[in-house]
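Appendix B. One record, verbatim.
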Amino acid sequence: MGLWAFFLVVTTLFETTKSYLLKNAHIKFVGNNNSEKASIASSSIIINATITALFIGFLFLFSGQLSFWLGAGNELDQMLKWYIPAMVFLVLFSHLEAVSQSHLDFKGVFAGYFVRQILFFTIVLIYAVFKIPFSLIQLVIFQSVCTVIGTLVIFLFSKKYLLYVFKPSMKWIKKLLGFGGYIFGSGIATNIFANLDQLMIAKFTSSKAMVANYNAAIRISALVDIPSYSAAEILLPKVSQVDITEGFEKVKYLYERMVGVLLCFTVPVALIIFFFPHFVIKVIAGSQYEESSFILQMYMISALIKPIQNQAANILLYIGKARLCFLLNLIFLGVNFGLNCFFLIKLGAYGAAVGSVIACALATIAWSIVLHKNINVKYFNIAKYAAETYKTIFAKVFLIMKLKQPKTVV
């Protein structure tokens, strides 16, 4: 599990960081330049393929040293190289994802990810049920095959939006990189921030078991973060269609409303997991990961405030504050590193979780202040929208229960 966690950290950094650079820029510019869709899409896929080629080159040259630095032996090196076919197909997968989302069509994206993940899960389940032994190399090969199939599925859903015209232009390459450059840096900083505790535990303690505990807690906490990331996928195309020359009122409303709705779902779940971490760990991950209960509790504290920070970063990018967004991410990456070092020395292996939570809280306060100054966000409005959402949910539930009650015949 420790080796698999290392593999996921590296591949996730690649996939999500590339998404920060390209998908956001693609969606933003297509939303405002419908007449130049072909040039934007063509330029985007050239950048996409170039980044992938550079990363593959990096793996061939340095994955052995990376594997050695993390104390993972030769196996992580081999795993990363076997993942290269998946990286090649992810060029098309991520491009089709951006094209679909720029048209506010999420069916194809859902289908591609669903098939890709459910096939992988099914393969692992079959091996587990029939107790067939398999290696981590085989697991990576299965993941590559599932990525290929997922790409074919998203293509079937997205092909109606493709123009089948290839005319990249240096103008749009520069614009995409100009807008995406700071986002790319922000993406790297954000993803390192999210995985810094695992990386530091790997380096400072040389314990793959503790890395596995952190990874188990992170994967469970990711379930709580799903609404926040899903909302961002909807919010970005909507904000890109807003004419900000008319003012930020519509952007402000979208942010306040979205965060209010998100908190309705994330807060109750985070509190339940916080108070019953042992039960949740045992059911989802297994009793062998009970040591990760405290780590999970720390992550649930972060989950209570993450929607505020996550959506704030996206809004800043779309109102032209990409440089500010990058600087904030970079500053708090440094803060996170410093706090993790301090608490690792003071508290041992669990110190990284404590440091990450404090860094997340400080970052959320900073993002909130910046957003208030830029678009005058009122956090009272977020509470109001959250209350309205609860009221709507309870009214719907009450109505359904009332309709299901048997009618009394007099």
